[in-house]
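To illustrate this point, we now present one chain and its tokenised fold:
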Amino acid sequence: MKRPDFPIVLEDEHLLIADKPSGLLSIRAPGYDGPTFYGEVRDYLIKRYGKYAKVFIVHRLDKDTSGLMVFAKDFETKERLQALFEEKKVVRRYQAVLSRPLEKKEGRIVQYLAEDRFHNMYAASKNKKGAVEAVTDYRVVSGGKNPKVEILIETGKRNQIRLAFSSLGSPILGDRKFGGDRCSRLMLAATELDLRAYKDDKAYDAFSPKCLF
């Protein structure tokens, strides 16, 4: 069977962890009828296991963010994994390249994010109706004009990381929506997922060197 066009990092009878490319939606959005990463994973599983193969999306990445995504092969696994995400028991690490240097080599960014009527996310006050807390930790792993940072998120809100670094005056390289310098792509990747809360086994500590910059 032909190998899928995306790297599979881990697969067993219950789940699949794959590396999403930048520029591809995780799942179909209203008014969009183009390709999605969910569709590619579903097509791969159907070709491998037959037309009755199932796949459930567990979480999402922004369209322009690359990196690790988890899919469940049955509804029970989907429910269990999503509960772990909601309970903040899944460790998620990212790497990004920034447009400008940071004042501090490491820190924690706490914001409150809200969504406007056009479904755009923005930083809001704590008391804004509908605002949710977003917590982002970072450390600089290499300096220079465009520093590379390692990121650990406690929450998984849409555009959280992009808004966090924009608030520091150093947007992610390629993030023109939030003030980043021009680049061929958004320089943000989900590089590691620790799912050992799902199963007490180091095999569920998934890391993808292919999505590093």
Summary: The mean pLDDT is 89. Residues 58 and 79 are 8 Å apart (CA to CA). The helical segments are 37-49, 75-86, 160-167.
